[in-house]
Amino acid sequence: MKIGELAACLPEAVLQGDREVDVTGIAYDSRRVKPGDLFVCIKGFRFDGHLFVADAVEKGARAVAAEQGSMVKDLSVPVIYVPDSRRALGLLSACFYDYPSRKLRLIGVTGTNGKTTTTYLIKSILESAGYKVGLIGTIQNMIGDKAVSAERTTPEASDLQSMFSEMVRDGCSYAVMEVSSHALSLERTAGTEFDIAVFTNLTQDHLDFHSSLQDYLDAKTKLFAELGGSDEKNKAAVLNADDEHSIYIAENSKVPVITYGIEADADYRAVAIDIQPEGLTYCLEHRGEVLEIKLPITGYFNVYNSLAALAACRAAGVELAAAVKGLTSAPLVPGRLEPVNLGQDFSVMVDYAHTPDGLENVLKTIRGITQGRSIVVFGCGGDRDKGKRPVMGEIAGRLADVVIVTSDNPRSEPPELICEAIGAGVERTIGDKPWEIIVDRRQAIRQAIMMAETGDTVLIAGKGHENYQILKDGIIHFDDREEASRALQERLGQQ
To answer: How many angstroms separate the CA atoms of 459 and 377, rounded?
Structure first.
């Protein structure tokens, strides 16, 4: 593609140099530049791509995109000067790949909790209805039936557009993706045209990145404020009527709003809810109809996730009966209340809950389906929102029968100090129930499993599907499910 054609895709761009230069790829990391690439200079949190332009050109970059006012000078290749290089990366990538999101029915899911499960449920419904579906999210990316590892919830803009392009080539007609607040703030979705946007909920999280809860909400709202494009008639915003933040989002949405909920009146409402260890059932009220819904996953919060998925798929054109059928065959989502069962007489579950609201929801679910005690093992990540540590401690102390505080991706912080901050919250609500700090996560999981009795439930929370620990000195392999299995084998004498 000619650099002049790419520059024409950008408002307020100024191109200096030969407009006829051919570009064969787009890169934002100078270490990954290939001959023929356009190198887009991104100002990151640790490094500024403008400082590595010479390296990129030496590796074969045929052109550069840089921010206006930068010190990129005297290059032997054309330069596109732009107001915002992050946004430019998305717009350039969409143009380069011929706007692939416009060739898909694209559903974006945003919110603090429930994004992953909701996307999996949407995918299940669409596939049950006969469509080929792409998936982009926290656990993995799917291009047709091909799994691709996921480094972050929402990929960087050029990787995202490349993935959409591959989905189109592979024959996908739908795509569903998790859309994080980071991605929206950092313009990773610039150039992406969504058809349907889903809001799950908003509670405290990521306040190490966002300046306030309002800033966090504004980032989420951006997905809905920009929902529109070439055909607004077939677009919709799907909002949780039981979350007060939906009012603000609806006020900023340009497209029709569809609601779902349990407490409030909603277009899709669940009543007569029954939560059991092996799954859940409820009655769906929609336009005078009442349909029974059965899901092979449990948890009160999954009622909301399934309602969101139903509403989104109906907005996408799936018949209600087909959508309900797709829910009944929904798969178990890795790391979301995932059982670890080696034949023991108590339950062990691994869950991704890493926010106050997420931990509270899953502990309430555990309490409702457990005959004996609930034993929770959890921690909080280092170099992240410190305010939620004592809050999560208070929640665990209030809702669990036994609390073990441990390490969870401490990064550069001393894990002992993180645990102490959580412990301060536990002490405020735990009363005379037992609790302790075991910094070593492997030992904490082992301790919980060794103390469990018949009918108890051990909940290992915070990491879910993740198979690593981020420590001060690097990343090591660590999987809560593997550790739980190892401890169970020891207890049951299976080693």
So the answer is: 6
Note the pTM of the prediction, 2 decimals.
Answer: 0.90
Q: Which two tokens stand for residue 130?
A: 């006969």
Residue appearing with tokens 């392999």: 477
Delineate the domains of the chain, giving CATH numbers in brackets. 3-96 (3.40.1390.10), 100-328 (3.40.1190.10), 338-492 (3.90.190.20)
In terms of Cα–Cα distance, which of 357, 437, 447 is closest to 399? 357
**Tens digits of residue pLDDT in 179-230:** 998 889 899 999 999 999 999 999 856 555 556 888 889 989 999 999 875 5
Q: Which tens digits make up the pLDDT trace of 253-308?
A: 989 999 999 999 999 999 999 999 889 999 999 999 999 999 999 999 999 999 99
β-strand 79-82 against 14-16: which pairing, if any? Answer: antiparallel
* Closest alpha carbon to 110 in 186, 175, 196, 187: 196
pLDDT in tens, 117-143: 999 999 999 999 999 999 999 898 998
Whole-number Å distance between alpha carbons of 7 and 14: 8
CA distance 380 to 397: 15
